[in-house]
Amino acid sequence: MTKKRDIGFPPREAIVAFIRANPGKVGTKDIAREFGLKNADRAALKELLRELVAEGTVKKGGRKTIVESATLPATLVADITGRDSDGELIAKPAEWDEAEQSEPPRIRIYASRLAKPGATAGVGDRALLRVEPIQDAEGVAYRGRVLKVLDQARNRVLGIFKSNPNGGGRLIPVDKKQAGRELSIAPGDTRDARDGDLISVDLLRGRGYGLPAGRVKERYGSVATEKAISLIAIHAHEIPMEFSAAAVAEAEAAQPATLKGREDWRELPLVTIDPPDAKDHDDAVHAEPDPDPNNVGGFILHVAIADVAYYVRPGSALDRDALIRGNSVYFPDRVVPMLPERISNNLCSLVPGEARGALAVRMVIGADGRKRSHSFHRVLMRSAAKLSYAQAQAAIDGKPDDVTGPLLEPILKPLYAAYEVAKRGRDARDPLDLDLPERKILLKKDGTVDRVVVPERLDAHRLIEEFMILANVAAAEALEKKALPLIYRVHDEPTVEKVHALQDFLKTLDVPFAKSGALRPSLFNRVLTLVAGQDYEQLVNEVVLRSQAQAEYSSENYGHFGLNLRRYAHFTSPIRRYADLVVHRGLLRALGLGDGALPDSETPDHLAEVAAQISVTERRAMKAERETADRLIAHHLADRVGATFQGRISGVTRAGLFIKLDDTGADGLVPIRTLGTEYFDYDEVRHALIGQRSGAMHRLGDVVDVRLVEAQPVAGALRFELLTQADVLVSRHPRGAGPRRKNTVGTNAKASKRSKSEARPKHKEKSRKKSQKAGAKRKPGTSKKGRSWTP
């Protein structure tokens, strides 16, 4: 910050330049101090900032921070896409929300004399960068320095081998972006690949004619059965499956934790409550009424978490492998763990009757549900029981079994009583109330799809979630109190652009969305309450979800908007998340709890690098899991082409309508060209496609019937034909949908005797085709703005 100077009210350009020069660090008070503004000028400053936010020049970057619109974090993962006119490398962010800005900012890479080994990048590489804003004549907004190359460019393609009768074969790429770009494989280059094998192929130098040629590099096995479909996602996203020999050796040499340096909690009846098919159990809970007369109606809550840091030491082979993975990845038929099974399923799994090391937090909860105090302990514990959610809930509902019967009075009832109290604190906090159903694919013994279910949401689920949230908050508070660096779990508030878009949409339904003061989750909850029970309830829930940002990891804290928490860190799942392991190490160091602590040399800058890297691996896992589910369902439905299904419109784009089927949750596309003979406009405010001539409207959230036209199992793609007649919009005014009447002509019938050339002007037809081609590149089931958050 520069010295105060009394120069009168500064021009807006000067304020924007100051915000740009201090990315992520500027608040209203900082601006006032920088320009010597008096109290009388504060109102004018706030008004100017509101104007800059409204026009998109700047945005709120947190609770009290103003940042330049579309500002990049100081550390991020980027893809190096090419070179500029001077031959310098140019990169773009690996993750970019097109809803905020159509084009990602360009980053010029500069070479550092102090570059570390492994920090030399080239075109096509993915790298971890440290960036800072600049502005030059070529429109480059940032310059960056390579910290680490995460993934080098490879001239390699993943796909399915199709044999030729005369020897050799072809590669059918699994990447939708490469659909139709087959490769020719000569008889001597197949490495004995068989029809239906998943293979990776190195590209060979082009011959100038015919199909591009390739040579099989690796065979991963047959994907003729659905049981092996997860292999496609694993190899397509380069998710490591094998641990290094050094990591395996460390895991095998590890010994069970002992009482040395620990408190003895083996007599405390902690229990684990997990899904019935869980293979590792890393959290256990216990509750009892607080005997303190000053806390009548309050509870003492214990949450014990597997002591992974005891086995995975900083800088070890296990640590290096875990960081590369970032997290475990869960598929219907397998788990790709972050840690070897010797650690995750054995030494760190809190199985009943076995002494296990744990890092535990003891929390005192007041009768109002608010946490009064907490303390962390390194303990040796012994789980009293392993329960499933349904099993615990059944006992509370009056149907105990042989396991839960003896636990009902001494353990389960106090847990549920503590949850009822904790829920008061949650209700007072009023977090974002999007209770989203999650579908689960159940497989038969042969690996084929049996059915798709939506597991019932029970109080047992909510109990564990709320206790884990309380423990995560306690961990963040403990580390902040000691002023130690940590990795936060952060969730930014929606951007001004998204809030305005949501307001415009809700106006079409006459649903009030009056924002005054700071943006809070309660504002969205009021909207969800207003539409509860209405025909458009599902539609509004979808649009509210799409207005939210995506949660991520960061070494800088800007709060968790969805949970309405000022500080939050992941602490409760170190077996499957690297962020939690870092937090455990921080607590060991902060509280002097023994070996495995965060090194004294650890810096916020390095943790920023780790946070950026594991945010990418988290999104990689989510995408791989989603794609595998799509492929499994496409395989399941492949023999039902021609069948009809009911579903909802889950996405609306210029390419057409994305449909989510009710029974399986499968996503598929209805191309816009199949909607009829007239031209359809994309109405971004209404989230709808509207016929120019007839006013026929297809809107996000509408219940529709569709016919399955095509299934591509390898790509996980489905194509539908729409059977439901469209509603006709009488009023096209964006402020109100007005009365709607059913179209007497089906959307797939001929709506007019005019030819397509008459119905669609040529310039609009050309524009429509271009939009369709661009939209078709997006994943079925997601809109341009579709993005979700997870705590």
Automatic annotation (TrEMBL):
Which keywords fit this entry according to its UniProt record?
Answer: Cytoplasm, Exonuclease, Hydrolase, Nuclease, RNA-binding
The record describes the protein's role as:
3'-5' exoribonuclease that releases 5'-nucleoside monophosphates and is involved in maturation of structured RNAs.
Ranges for the region named Disordered are: 733-791
Keyword Ligase tagged: no
The record's section on Pfam families has:
CSD2, RNB, S1
Q: What is its main location?
A: cytoplasm
Q: Which organism is it from?
A: Bradyrhizobium aeschynomenes
Q: Where would I find the S1 motif domain in this sequence?
A: 642-733
Q: Which family does it belong to?
A: Belongs to the RNR ribonuclease family. RNase R subfamily.
Q: What is the lineage of its organism?
A: Bacteria, Pseudomonadati, Pseudomonadota, Alphaproteobacteria, Hyphomicrobiales
Instruction: Give the catalytic activity.
Output: Exonucleolytic cleavage in the 3'- to 5'-direction to yield nucleoside 5'-phosphates
Q: Where is the composition biased (Basic residues)?
A: 733-743, 761-791
- Name of the protein described by the UniProt record: Ribonuclease R
Compartments, as annotated in UniProt: Cytoplasm
CDD domains, per the entry? S1_RNase_R
Q: What is its EC number?
A: 3.1.13.1
Q: Which SMART domains match?
A: RNB, S1
Could you tell me the gene encoding this protein? rnr
